[in-house]
TrEMBL record:
Enzyme Commission code(s) on record: 2.5.1.25
Reactions listed under catalytic activity: a uridine in tRNA + S-adenosyl-L-methionine = a 3-[(3S)-3-amino-3-carboxypropyl]uridine in tRNA + S-methyl-5'-thioadenosine + H(+)
Pfam families associated with the record: DTW
InterPro entries xref list: DTW, DTWD2/TAPT
The protein, known as: tRNA-uridine aminocarboxypropyltransferase
GO biological process: tRNA processing
Organism: Anopheles merus (Mosquito)
Domain DTW: 24-218
Keywords: S-adenosyl-L-methionine, Transferase, tRNA processing
Length: 265
């Protein structure tokens, strides 16, 4: 009898659970983040309008990250100046003819550290406007996209010779010179457009995001390279990371080799 009463009580409890989903926090209509953590107030007063376009080839996993920086780029630039295509191989049947035309355009530049890449500062702005293609994802994801997308292999390729230190301090980067997608685009736009407004204005939302996260329990992240060199990295080092760190060491010893130390995250 007691078991029957417990079962009845349990069913009554379940019956009292509201059928409607829990109320979500109100979202900003521009950045689609909860209003309390919106960074739109730090955007440029007016969207910046470069002569060329940024084209992000985004790995599907990147869209699921709550702290990604690509949205800052898409709303910080004028409409039509930041195009985002999702996939693991480009172009594919889901993409429209516009992407195929962009990848085949002689004025399109792929930012990728290959043997044929040239410093982006050497590109003549008068030859534009350019379509600047960025691979949006972690290093392994970006490399996989490149190797699976033969349309990218014949493109003109450029690199950032000096990337500096990332301001994205709430996310662990592989090496000291890696940058987020936003920072990579800012560096490239500043060079192509010969305009420092991109550095001065587009980076502010990232600073606001990091400050909010740090004020609410997040901690500053050092790169994996830093942690390993100071014996603070808690995991075993895989072969891929070991090769990347050796690659970074070679760059430090001989920066004239022209290898770019950049990541798009």
């Amino acid at each position: 009898m007691a078991d029957v009463m417990l079962e009845i009580s349990a069913w009554e409890d379940l019956a009292n659970i509201p059928a409607d989903p829990p109320r979500m926090r109100p979202l900003c209509s521009k950045c689609c983040r909860p209003v309390q953590v919106c960074w739109c107030a730090a955007l440029p007063p007016e969207p910046l309008n470069p002569a060329g376009r940024i084209v992000l080839l985004q790995h599907p996993a990147e869209e699921k990250r709550s702290l990604r920086t690509a949205p800052m780029l898409s709303v910080g630039l004028a409409p039509g100046k930041c195009l985002i295509y999702k996939g693991k191989r480009f172009p594919n049947t889901r993409h429209d003819a516009e992407l195929e035309a962009i990848l085949a355009d002689k004025r399109s530049l792929l930012l990728y550290p290959s043997a044929s890449s040239v410093p982006i500062e050497q590109i003549d702005p008068a030859g534009g406007p350019y379509n600047l293609i960025l691979l949006d994802g972690t290093w392994p994801q970006a490399k996989a996209i490149y190797h699976c997308s033969t349309a990218l292999h014949g493109m003109r390729q450029v690199k950032l010779v000096s990337s500096g230190t990332s301001s994205y301090i709430i996310r662990t980067q592989p090496t000291e010179g890696c940058l987020s997608t936003l920072e990579t685009a800012i560096q490239a736009l500043s060079a192509l457009e010969r305009d420092d407004r991109y550095r001065e204005q587009l980076l502010q939302p990232l600073h606001v995001l990091c400050q909010y996260q740090l004020a609410n329990g997040a901690v500053t992240h050092q790169s994996k390279e830093f942690l390993i060199r100071h014996n603070q990295y808690p995991k075993l080092i895989g072969r891929r990371l070991n090769r990347l760190l050796k690659h970074a060491d070679n760059f430090k010893d001989d920066p004239s080799d022209g290898t770019e130390r950049k990541n798009s995250t």
